[in-house]
Amino acid sequence: MDVEALVGPVIESAGLRLWDLRWGRESGRRVLRVYVDREGGVDLDAIAAVSEKISRRLDLEGFAPGPYELEVSSPGLERTLREPGHFRLSVGERVKVRTASPAGGSRSHQGTLASANDRGIVLATGGGNVRIPYAEVTSARTLVDWGSSEGPGTSAMRAGGTGTRASVKRQKRKRSKP
User: Per DSSP, what are the bridge partners of residue 71?
Assistant: First the structure.
């Protein structure tokens, strides 16, 4: 069953975008993690509302027989970048990128994400621009300057976000038929 196809329209109808989705086993339990976002960030009320709608949709479609946990949250201020779309949405932000082989003399890079397209990214660093194809990226995430005079998350809070990660967990138990 294509989970993204089930929850994507629900998330979009709530005025949010699907950032990431993870489904699998964790410490012996099955967990569906759904990360949502919108311009300016999301707050706990938005997450709780979309969590309820996602839960209803999954129940109606008969998703995952047996118990599982549904966790709906924001990706947070320091978010993982895994797909080209994540990088495109993060252009202009400070990022940390690790590569499989050295690019520009190093495998660890920090700088401002200057551009992103379907093939890779350009990272503006103190030593100049570094071009990195997606195939070489082993991990990437945005960085927040926690020592700035404004404090952590201030710009996100001004824009209406929470400044931190917010999440809602739901225990899903398969109902037995009478």
Answer: 33, 169
User: 3 near 23, Cβ under 8 Å?
Assistant: yes
Mean pLDDT of 27-39: 94
Is pLDDT at 68 greater than 70 in this prediction?
Answer: yes
Let me know whether 24 and 88 are in one domain. no
> pLDDT band at residue 51, thresholds of 50, 70 and 90?
very high
N- to C-terminal Cα separation, the chain: 26
Q: For the chain, how many structural domains are there in total? A: 2
Structure tokens at 49: 């509302």
**DSSP character for 174?**
P
Residue 25 and residue 58 in one domain: yes
Residues 57 and 118 grouped into a single domain: no
